[in-house]
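WARN no homologs supplied; continuing
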Amino acid sequence: MGTVFKKTRLQPLPTGASLFTRAGQQFAKWKPAKGKSRTAKVTTSEDGSLRIQVEAATYTAKFRDGQGHVRAVSTGCREEDAARSVLSKLERRAELVRSEIISPAEDATADHQAIPLAQHFAAFHEHRIVKGLNATRIANTKSRLGRLAEECGFRRLSECSAEGLTRWLNRQQANGMSAGNRNEYRQELVGFGNWCIETHRLSANPFSKVPKADAKIDRRRQRRSMTEAELVKLLDVARWRPLAEYGRESTKVDEQPPAVGKQSKRSNWKKTALTLEGLQVAVERAKERLAENPEFAEKLERLGRERALMFKTLVLTGLRKGELASLTVGQLDLDAPMPFVELNAGDEKNRQGNTIPLRLDLANDLREWLSDVPNASTLRLRDHNAYRESDRKLFRVPSGLVRILNRDLKAAGIAKKDERGRTLDVHALRGTFATLLSKGGVAPRTAQAAMRHSTIDLTMNTYTDPKLLDVCGALDSLPSLDLNASPSTEKNWMRATGTDYQKSSPSNPRQKDAPNNAPTTGFRGHIGSIAVISSGNADQRPTRQPNAENPVKSNEKALFAGFANKAFRVERKGVEPSTSALRTQRSPN
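OK structure emitted
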């Protein structure tokens, strides 16, 4: 049989409390800074100091649960009758567990329903910290969960429902929130629900059935990739713009002359905008103006060099901005046969860690950059152990790098948005990396590995810009179909489809049974029968010689089967199949 009681705890004797005795028991009386006077029993602790016994405001239920363990659960009730009603429910649930009507896991789940949701969020937050997730990601999750709980009216775990989340998502859609942003908020609650299942706080996730919004039809920000010509302009401007800013000329805003006896106001003058054509002139003018301060001029020139090298590294490695900012000198190996950088698992998005190869020209630029670092005596590139121990950041990546990129784009004459509304930002350089890989003929699976994506669809469809791919060049590789040409003879048609046959000769009596264009070793792109494609030997498959009654029907099925078999064996390059496949591997129909 369970019982209810109010817990007591010992506290130090309040300052200014007066002691008195009542019925043989010592009491203390004091008045807090706010509120009425209070009275409490006084007891002596083990060290001899006087302490007061403070009673809890609510009752606690003490009972034996379904597994035979004695438990003390707070009822949250100030009245004894209400507390005993809660106790009876707890004892009833213990009987259901002992009779195996409900499982111990279901019983444990019921204990968490009345706990305030803020306590569950705090435990979830601690779990993510121990898991080692990114600090920014943890902070974003905490902020989003707090907003969802407040605006959806979720105060306890038992109040969490799919209907409440659905109504909130509909309100945000009406207020103009993008589909991608709504999906992020939904995913936070789904992740929290999954964690509650793992910790036996919930038996089912109430948010898992809430549908996702279609982000493809409601994309607010679409990135585009940069062309090679735009990259050259960007790197040139980024290299020299910090110094060129001090070489800009001033022009008058108001053409009206100042009044007699008054000088022109400074507000009537403004700096001219930098352009790609006037960049070199501005640099020379800045050097002249800063001739008396060569250290500052050198600092500006090095700053521009660092920015250009950062952009080049992003384009040639596909690193994200946060990953680039995390790199230290010790993670570089520039003296290996294939230079590379070791990306730590804690700094990568998928938390796996990777070795990213560096192209030789980029490795040389990084080597030169590190060799020119002031006080770089400890960064000996020839001694791997020396610079691997250095924790100095490779680049000082500013938080406002996107604003710096915007100014560089404007000075280079590169539009921030194209005619389709797609934008350029720092992450667009990663998309440029993927697009250049496909444009250069890199196999999709290799491009996926270089991008460190989990699916090839993400590499090919999301990060690859089809506008920059040579689709017109792929169309030029298709066969010529002249509608105004003279009627084709049977012999020309058989030659076009690969079904014409050579005449037999005494030296090769079987030659009459082999197609004229049977595939040979080392030559790809011709169509043959299944047996020819599988073995590469035309003599292993006897064929019928065509006659006047049935010139090609005997080989039509084999021809189509050979096309189907070969079509799945073509090695793809980039996004489109190789040119030979486009030219010859087509259906005879």
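Residues 117-198 form a domain with the DNA polymerase; domain 1 fold (CATH 1.10.150).
OK
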